Amino acid sequence: MSMQTSRTPRGTARRREWRHCLAACAILLCATGLVVAHAPAASWLVALPTLVMVPGHAAVRLVYGARDATTQDPATAPAEPSADPALRALLTVLAGVLLPLAVVLGLNLAGMSITTSSVACVVGATGLALVCAATVWSAGETGGTPSGPFVSSRRKSALGIVGAAAALIAALGLAVAIQPSATQRYTTLGFLDANAFTAKGYSAAPLAPVRVNWIVNGFGCDIAADMTTVQVQVDGTAIDDVLVDLGTVTSTPTGSALTGSATFPAASQTGRHSVRITILTGTRDGSAVPQPGFITTTLEVRP
Amino acid sequence: MTTTAEPAIVADQVSTRTSAAAPQADGQRWWWRWPATVAAASAGTVIIGLSYRLSAQGYSAQVYYIVFWLGLLTAMLPVVARLVAPTGTRVSRLWGVLLFAVITAIPKYLRNPTGPSYHDEYAHWREAIDVLGAGHLFVPNTTIPIVEYFPGTSALTLASHALSGLDIWSSGLIVVFTMHVLGLFAVYLLGESLLSSARAGAIAALVYGVNPSSIYFDTQYAYESIAINLFLWTLALTALAATAERTRTRRALSCSAVLVAAGCVVTHHLSTVFLIAALITVAMTGAVRQRSDRRRERRDGADAVGRQRLSVWWTTLCATVSLAIAWVALCARPTLDYLSPYFGSSVRQLGSVAETKGHAGRELLATSVQPEWERLLTAAAPAAVLGLAVAAFLLVRRHQIRFQGPTLGLMAFGLAYFISLPFVLAPSGAEGARRSWGFTYVGIALIIAFVATRWPESQRAPFSRRWRQPLILLVFVVLLIGNVGGGLNDPYRFPGPFRWGTDTNSASAEARSVAEQLDGNVGRAWVVSDAYTALQLAAYGGLVIAAPSPGFPAWELTQSDTDPRPELAQMLTTSHYDYLVVDIRMAEQPAFNGHNFGQGDPLLGMATPMANLTRLDSVPWASRVISTEHLRVYRLKLDSLASRGARG
Questions:
Q1: pLDDT single digits (tens) A121-141
Q2: pTM, two decimal places
Q3: Same structural domain for residues A51 and A142?
């Protein structure tokens, strides 16, 4: 199937093409602006298809030429692939997906930082270049109004497509909603002091006070400070002379956190000693909560 | 008399045109049928969700498997019936392929809609986050180190994230979903182009859409899920280019194919290997066929009907090979080291399986809760495919059909599916064999589409027209259930209560919190941990996880009741592996996957003795710095053990 030249006077056709070009450029600029300006997420959802489809469409038009579909039977595949509206629609999406891939790879190759703004700006700029190039190089090729799959039935089936998409999305939403959402309840216990995470651990002079800071995080539960007890063992022996400081319980997005400290005298003998901090905690509502157990560290007693 | 595939297919096109001759009537039927099809798809989606709810609540596998298949078949069968019907317009089939593609993406989406759950998903999700944080590609990845050198997935995810404002996970899902839909259209175009019929294209897309990898593995957020569709598009565009009459169109399609192949090269190594293999098969078969056609022309004085331009296939092949070599040489040198052990060891293991009558091999569907009927269909699916391949062979012989080279080449490529089947018995080959099916099934799809559309109309032929549609639907159901059953195991397919030793159902919020807390305390630490906790530590904490091996037996820390040997202590110290993370549930039951530290685990198939874990609280070389009910983080202090080794 050969391409047919337009019956529209050349000047009018070119003016129409440039009007389309300007409209596409304006849409691209708006979409890029929304992304760069960090507009609310809902408006970005409009920007994504725009920044994919408009450059993709321009790339297809540039590479394959404008499509003259006035003589085409929409029911069957055209003899020439480039005249197939379905193929062109699919290539538009494919090109629209591959373009950002090329942009990100290009940014990396150029040594530029890959950020939301840089990706959006370069995709937008590339899209503008493609739209203009497609308008210039395929000028005069276009014929009548495109028709065929995805295009001819567009107006007729728009309601059907929207309805089908809405039904499927609603079903997906319902399927997600019926999943059990049991919140896992657990607690974690850890040191707050950086030296507990080093190979050396704590160090102190004989009988000098040693302060160990810790944190208990409650997930899915409200920890109660007054229901929390702290035990300290040094070399396996419980220490009675412990000053426990239970801070206030703070709320976190996932539950609650309790920070505190235990201060006890270092051993009188020099050398390395093992220290174990055991914390038993409870909740405000009195419900049982999985206990985090204990944490250990070493205490180097030096003269 | 010898015929080519094309003349009869021209007749098929004519019939399509005839059916479209009254577009209004056809359109009306199309309209009143679609709402029912979409309603069925929606209802099926909800039923699939119900099956996941039942599995998550710990119901019997017999129950949730039945509910799952009830849902998927409810969603699929109406659209499948529409696609395989002998009547119907191309437009109707294209919409059908779109709906079918959406339905095939639903089970995986519902499996874990809000975050990563599969092994590869953790790796790619973390890679995208790290790339976003670093502002450049090629960021090291601890879960799958080779991911660093194939940045296509993270680049596309970042672009999607940048342009949509959605979080990284949702942005990745959008990319995977878009590519999945595009991929099935590529198979449609391939089938339509090579078998010259819209119905053949639709059936090819259907068959490909139910390959063992399609519904779960190749819809996960990972590089293969994207690259395999670029693989399909490269083949489809090259096939279209080969049939294009106009030079400009041919060049445009050919250039597009090369660009898409470039996308495949930068995204996934294995997809590139299979793309090259497919292109070589097609080009070589085409060359042989071309020579034989020339001999026939000289002998019979007949012109070859509709000969395709083979040079287009050679162009795509040469360009893809050049791009792949350039990429590996310049950007992804470790690829060869990464891939070569799989090929070598699987062949060796397959040999040993044959010699030892299976003792060295794998037990298929071991420790599976799959119902018996699904297991039977899993075995029946390859048999059905084999039967259809034999039917295709008989059809070709009886009617003396001569395929064009590319069609024959892709079908021959599909026959590699049967070669790969024995490899599922070899421990190393099983993964590779399973991974190959997503690629070779494109040839299988063409074979089945050929049989379905070219079966003789004669009443004397087996399976007369009256029975043909039900038979096609039956074969589809066997392939669907059998292939999904033979794809991924139960914990990958269904959510469920905590089960130690799976990539998916061993994940816990507790492990995630520990990962984040350790990252918050010490930053990007180097950690020794079991294979399951490691996934979450790497993904959520960005921690660097040790990869134990016989040369680096880091598993000794928990899989032995003695202190680590000085050599190991030295390796751990010099490499700055300062932390050990232990989930005590590894002592409560054997891992579902059979190991806690990969195939080199000295306690394969066994639970770790609890004594090995409790002794960690009394050894001088470890301090428990973070603790939960099930997880413990130890700060390792192996200097003294290491120095003992150095002195020794």
A1: 999 999 999 999 998 887 656
A2: 0.90
A3: yes
